[in-house]
Amino acid sequence: MNYERAQARRVALQGLYQLDVQGESFLTDGLQAFVSEATDDPKIREIATYMARSAWLFRTTADEWLGKIAAKWPVYRMATVDRNILRLATWELINYPQTPPKVVLDEAINMGKEFSTADSGSFINGILDALLKEHLQQTGKSLNP
Fold first, then answer.
1. Domain 3-139 falls under CATH 1.10.940.10
2. Which residues contact 21 (CB under 8 A, 6 or more apart)?
3. What is the mean pLDDT of each run of 10 residues along the chain (145 residues)?
4. How far apart are CA 96 and CA 101, in angstroms?
5. What is d(CA 44, CA 12) in angstroms, rounded to the nearest whole number?
6. Cα(69)–Cα(129) distance, integer angstroms
7. Which terminal CB of the chain, N or C, has fewer other CB atoms within 10 Å?
């Protein structure tokens, strides 16, 4: 596992949470300062800021995907932490193919267990597994290199 990306995901998740709670203005008024407070490592800061900003700007598309997959559990009703773990992972699965899907799913599940409820890991796993299968089917890609 890439330590820097794993740490950056956790900081990015916290930034996404702040964006979700505080609103769009946090993107320009607070995200950079928040990330700078969260870590002293410049590489982690760079990656976390990129991830949080990209996932936030992708959230409408991510929410559409998640809404289709979890039709009985609307995105707006999901716990804020779970919703943002799913948004971050959806962004990474669809837009950042350099990260193996298994890594994205494992990291998202672990963050759910770490930052949310005991049930979040299996909830996140079920949604992301279905989303990944749907994405691979639509793009004609496979998980095999």
1. yes
2. 80
3. 89 97 92 96 97 97 94 92 98 93 96 94 96 88 58
4. 9
5. 10
6. 10
7. C
CA distance to 4, 9, 76, 83, 115, per residue, from 67 (Å): 30, 23, 9, 11, 22
Q: How many residues does the chain have?
A: 145
Q: What is the dihedral of CA 59, 62, 67, 70, to 10 degrees?
A: -120
Q: Maximum distance among all alpha carbons in the chain?
A: 42
Domain ranges of the chain: 3-139
The pTM (predicted TM-score) of the whole model is 0.93
51 close to 93: Cβ distance less than 8 angstroms: no
Instruction: Look at the block and give the residue holding tokens 């979890």.
Output: 70
Nearest CA to 52 among 11, 104, 112? 11
Residue type, 136: L
Helix, strand, coil percentages, rounded to 5, for the chain: 80, 0, 20
